[in-house]
Amino acid sequence: MDAALIDALAPRDAPDWERSFRAAGVPAACLQTLDAALAMPQIAARRFLATMGDAAVPTLPFRIGGQTPVPATGPRSLGADTAEVLAELGLPDA
Asked: Cα–Cα distance between 26 and 32 in angstroms, integer?
């Protein structure tokens, strides 16, 4: 069965199949990379990403009183908690 499906689908690319399925009333969407998904216009329109320092962080997917809740602080720097975590585990600081 897998081989038959692969043979049937292989001649056309995913966007072409998506258009055909949608035209036939079949819900379909191409799988997106994270970068492609975050570049979609609805991400900006819904204000899904907030900039905190040099990082883009996701907001909540709902609004409260018309406002977009954003995190109070940005992400910690890479390695900022390494010494503390190693100490809690009883391991020497690297």
From this structure: 18
Could you tell me the CA-to-CA distances from 75 to 8, 30, 60 in Å, in that order?
Answer: 46, 31, 15
Q: Smallest Cα–Cα separation from 67: which of 53, 46, 52? A: 46
Other C-beta atoms closer than 10 Å to the C-beta of 3 total: 7
d(CA 48, CA 37): 11
Confidence at residue 93, expressed as pLDDT on a 0 to 100 scale: 77
Q: What is the pTM of this model?
A: 0.53
In this structure, the chain runs to a length of 94
Query: Which one-letter amino acid corresponds to residue 90?
Result: G
Nearest-angstrom CA–CA distance, 7 and 21: 17
